Amino acid sequence: MSGKILYNNPVSHAFLGLVLLALGGLLLLPLVRHAQHLENQMNLRMPPVPVSLIRSGDALGEQLSLFLLGGLNSLASEILILDATTAWMQRDWPRAERRWQMATTLNPHRPNYWINAARDMAVNAAAHSLHNKDLSPIDQVRLSRAYFDRGVRFLQQGIAHHPRSALLRMSLGDLYADLNRFPNFAAAAAAYHDAVRLGASPLYARQEFYNLCRIRGREQEAWQLGRSLFSSPAHRVPSLLCLLFVLQQKIDVPPAEKLSPSQLFGSKEKARRELARFRRNSLRFPTSGIPPFLSKPVH
C-alpha cells in the first residue's frame, strides 16, 4: 500500500448512479414500492416534479425522470448532488446551480441541502468568479455578487421551508458577516438573533453583538446587548471587552452602568495591553477612544 489517503471520487459515484438509473423493469418496481412504503410510514408528501426542472438535452435529468416517476426523489437528489460536486470540480457553476436547484426542489425537507447549495454558490462560485481572469474587473465583481445573492436565496428558501431551523439562520448570518465577500452587518445581526431565539447556542449572541458594533447609529443597541453578555463569564473574551470600552466612549452611558478599564479587564495594565492589540484589528470594528486612553501616562 502506498499510504496515501483515498478520497471518494464524485465522478465515479455519479457514473455508478447513472448505471443504477439504467436498471428498470423488475429491479425498479421493488425500489419504487419500498420508497413509497417508507414515505407513507414517515407521513412524507414529496412535491410534484416541475417539468421545467428537466431541460431538453439534459441527459442526467432525462435519466432521472425514471426515478422521479417512481417517487424516488431522495435517491434522485443524491445523484444530482454528486453531479453538482463534479460540476464544482470542473468550475461549471451554471450546472452546479441547476443541480442544487433540482435537488432542493425534489427534497426540500433536508436543511443541509439548502446549506450546501448556498455555500457552493455564495462561497465557491463567488470566489472563483471574483478571480476569473477571463472576465473584466467589473464583470468579475458583478458575477461574484450574483452568485453570492444566489446562495443567500437558497438559504432564504430553506428558511421558508424550515422556519424553526436555527441552523439555517446561523448559516445565513455567516454569509452576511463574511468580510471577504459582500457583508451586510444588519442582516447578519438579525439572522444571529433569530438563530439564538430558535435554540442556537447562546454564544451566537456574541456574533449578533459584533455585527451591531459595526453599524453606525446602532451603538446604543450594541452596548445594551454587550452589557448583558458581560454579565456571563463565558462571554468575557478580549474582543467583547474592547468593544464595550469603545462603545462607552461613543455613547452617553449612565455613570452607574459604566465599566472602568479595571472592571472590564481586571487591571489597567491588562486593559492597555488588550486595547493596544485591538486597536490594530482588521475586522471593521470601531476603535474610537482607544488612542487617547493609551496616550495617557500610566499611574
Shape: elongated
**Biggest pleated-sheet summary:** none
Mean pLDDT across the residues is 83
Number of domains as seen in the coordinates: 3
Oligomer: single chain
- Compute the gyration radius: what is it? 25 Å
Number of strands: 0
- In sequence order, what are the helices and strands, one letter per element? HHHHHHHHHHHHHHH
Q: Number of helical segments?
A: 15
Helix percent reads 55-70%
- Poorly predicted runs are 1-36, 38-51
**Beta-strand residue percentage:** under 5%
Tell me the distance between the termini. 67 Å
Structural class: mainly alpha
Q: What key attributes describe this structure?
A:
299 residues, mainly alpha, disordered N terminus, 3 domains, elongated
Task: Explain what the structure shows.
With 299 residues, this protein is an all-alpha fold. Helices cover 66% and strands 0% of the residues. It has 15 helices and no strands. The relative contact order is 0.06.
List the helices and strands and how they pair.
Layout (H helix, E strand, L loop, with lengths): L9 H13 L5 H14 L17 H11 L3 H17 L3 H14 L4 H20 L6 H25 L4 H12 L7 H13 L6 H10 L5 H12 L7 H13 L10 H5 L2 H11 L11 H6 L4
Helix pairs in contact: 1-4, 3-4, 4-5, 5-6, 6-7, 6-8, 7-8, 8-9, 9-10, 10-11, 11-12
Structure in a nutshell:
By secondary structure, the chain is mainly α.
